[in-house]
Specification:
Blueprint lengths: L3 H10 L1 H10 L3 H16 L3 H11 L13 H15 L13 H16 L3 H17 L1 H14 L5 H4 L5 H18 L2
Length: 183
């Protein structure tokens, strides 16, 4: 079972995809815009999720679509299905996540990416891109994600140029990574 904070991080990281799929079910123009995204995601190793998304695009709405998916894919497809039922549940693609709640989810993605999980690496790169657009400490955090994946754990190096809130977030991520690496 995936932790609620991690699930929220996944929904937020994939907000663009989730919203685009929901829009594409109602608008053929958006479907054309979505196709290259689906093809790229399929090539990146998201084959099973993309097959299920295509079934949603063809009109299927049954929760049996979730059977057999891993936790992360389940979060994404559940958000799509919920968004079709109630658009107010869709994640806002313009919103960045709450930094105070981000550490456990980011640490899990960094840990997964460092251990060869392609989906974690993809989500982390998506989040880093969003962070870079946010500016300030979030942009700096987006800039150090590769260092974290590569194993850098020196807070002085990682926190360079950040204010107290940014440093606090990086230290929280390092603490969470420490817990994950000792399991």
């Amino acid at each position: 079972m995936i932790e609620p904070q991690h699930a929220q991080q996944i929904r937020q990281a994939q907000a663009g995809l989730i919203n685009l799929v929901v829009q594409a079910t109602q608008n053929p123009e958006t479907r054309r815009e979505l196709e290259p995204v689906l093809n790229q995601a399929h090539e990146a190793g998201w084959g099973e999720l993309i097959l299920r998304i295509r079934r949603v695009l063809e009109g299927e709405r049954d929760t049996s679509l979730l059977q057999g998916l891993d936790d992360e894919d389940t979060v994404i497809l559940t958000a799509i299905l919920a968004g079709l039922q109630d658009p107010s549940t869709l994640p806002n693609p313009e919103q960045s996540g709450d930094p105070a709640q981000a550490a456990p989810g980011l640490a899990q993605m960094i840990h997964g990416a460092a251990h060869g999980d392609a989906q974690s690496l993809h989500w982390l790169s998506q989040m880093a891109e969003q962070m870079s657009r946010a500016g300030g400490d979030m942009a700096r955090l987006g800039g150090i994600t590769k260092r974290l994946v590569d194993g850098e754990r020196d807070p002085d190096v990682l926190c360079r140029g950040m204010d107290a809130q940014g440093e606090s977030l990086v230290l929280s991520i390092l603490s969470e990574l420490g817990k994950l690496e000792h399991h």
